[in-house]
Every structure is written in C-alpha cells, then in structure tokens.
Write a structure and sequence with these properties.
Elements: H1 2-22, H2 33-39, E1 43-50, E2 55-65, E3 70-75, E4 83-90, E5 93-99, E6 107-113, E7 117-122, E8 136-146, E9 149-158, E10 161-162, E11 168-172, H3 174-180
Antiparallel strand pairs: 1-2, 1-11, 2-3, 3-4, 4-5, 5-6, 6-7, 7-8, 8-9, 9-10, 9-11
C-alpha cells in the first residue's frame, strides 16, 4: 500500500512540475551576431517605396517567431502583393528565404556585413530558380542608419535583366520605439 501511495505521489509531483514548465517558452539559443542584429528590428516600420511605378506607401512588420530562431518580415500585408521574408541562421550564418508576389521563393545567404549593413546574395544551392530565365529578387542590402531608421535596397532580375535599385528608407513606428528604449 505504501508503495502505491508513494508511486501515486511521485507521479502527481512529476505531472505538476511538467504543467508548471509547460507555460514557460523554450530558451532560444543565441544566433549569429547578424541574426541578433535582425532581432532589433522587431516592430512596425513605414516609408515610401518605388517598385518601378512611382512611390507608394509601405509598412513592414518584423516579428520574432519559433522560440526566437526566425525573424519574419511582412510587407503589403492583406493585399495581393503581400510578401514574407524569413531570416534565420543556417550553419551559423544569417540567411533568408523570400516568399515573393512573383510566386517564387528565392533564398539568399549573407555575403557581407559591417557595423552598418547586411548584404545578401542569391543562393542557388537551395532553390530551384533559374536566375537567367525567371524573374526574382536576387540580392538585398539592409542598412541600419540609426536605431529608428533603416534603408533597404533590393536587386531584382526581370526577364534575365538586372533592374535598377530603388532604395527604401523606413522609420520605426513611434509606439515601437518607445517600447524598445
């Protein structure tokens, strides 16, 4: 009888401990320095962009997902042109996959970084895009102008030809900057 009571109490104690830990998010392992810099973008950013047809308003939202292992960038949310870019570490180096309004998903690897910028270039080893034939986003530079200002510049390939860059300067939404300081 004592063995059954002891076994029951041990099971109850283990179940209680598991329930208490279930509410805690898993601890994320630190990422590359470049990924850690991407995490500072979490929030809402606004500006104007020109995708070749004149300036339009743009809002970009950055969210941290998957226990802190992925930064999601979402632009033109709720429109037919909505796009998502996922930033993550791949083999200890920052990489991205861009889910494009053109219906493809180019992958890019970090090509260069310095104190003010991250530069990505097309990674043909992990996607099926033929860069000479299929229109796609081929490269991206993200410049950190200050804590509340970034400038992005994308290189697009359209019908096998490189299109002119259209840098976009974005400002952090005021409500986000108040919560990060």
């Amino acid at each position: 009888m004592n063995t059954k009571i002891t076994s029951f109490c041990a099971t109850l104690l283990l179940a209680t401990a598991m329930c208490l830990n279930a509410g805690e998010p898993p601890k994320s392992k630190p990422g590359s320095p470049e990924f850690e810099r991407m995490k500072t973008l979490v929030g809402t950013w606004s500006g104007k962009t020109d995708m070749g047809q004149g300036p339009v308003d743009i809002t970009i939202q950055y969210r941290l997902l998957a226990a802190g292992s992925v930064v999601e960038e979402r632009c033109f949310q709720g429109t037919p042109n909505e796009m998502v870019t996922m930033y993550y570490d791949k083999d200890g180096k920052l990489a991205l996959t861009h889910y494009c309004m053109m219906g493809n998903r180019p992958a890019m690897a970090l090509k260069a970084s310095d104190a003010n910028s991250l530069t990505f270039d097309f990674d043909g080893s992990c996607c099926t895009i033929d860069p000479k034939k299929e229109s796609h986003m081929h490269a991206l530079t993200l410049r950190f102008d200050d804590a509340d200002t970034i400038t992005t510049s994308c290189k697009a390939i359209m019908d096998g030809k490189e299109m002119p860059d259209h840098p976009t300067t974005l400002k952090r939404a005021k409500s986000d900057s108040a919560s990060t300081n």
